[in-house]
């Protein structure tokens, strides 16, 4: 990879849609104070590449196919303690936003934001700001004032892996496909399912899905 000017903000893009990534890459590269140092459509690629390119700001979509988005934020925070993590997501529910901020994101913008708002958000977060889309700012303040367990539907009792399994199962993904996506065995998925049901007090898949929708883990 060619060297980039140290005076510019080094940006890394994570989004599972190539068209979205390329569009942002072109737009940000036109800014005089920014340079895109890399982009990825999976968590595995993002973690491998950001370890070497050391970006200043990472623009993160939470809907990544190979890893839970909240878990990815935690992994990025551990690997890149100096980088600023700015979420750009289609999710705008207060529970998901609060989870992202607790996992290490310093800002959260929704995908309905204008390009100018995203560019300004990158500049703000790079200088210590905490950009939030105006449409979610009020909900975020309310969510962050609550204890972690309040309004979480008991999800705080789940491990990160159990949350991954819950999201997929509640979305109607089969046990076999869930196992393939998470690179675990179907038997392990069933073990997680039993533990999730016990922790949440669920008795059916319908009830499990209702909890996932109510807490914002999946969309209705």
Automatic annotation (TrEMBL):
All residue ranges annotated as the Response regulatory domain in the record: 10-126
Coiled-coil annotated spans: none
Residues recorded with modification 4-aspartylphosphate: 61
Gene Ontology biological process terms in this record: phosphorelay signal transduction system; regulation of DNA-templated transcription
SMART domains xref list: HTH_LUXR, REC
Gene Ontology molecular function terms on file: DNA binding
Domain annotation HTH luxR-type: ranges: 151-216
Transmembrane region(s): none
Annotated keywords: DNA-binding, Phosphoprotein
Official protein name in the record: LuxR family transcriptional regulator
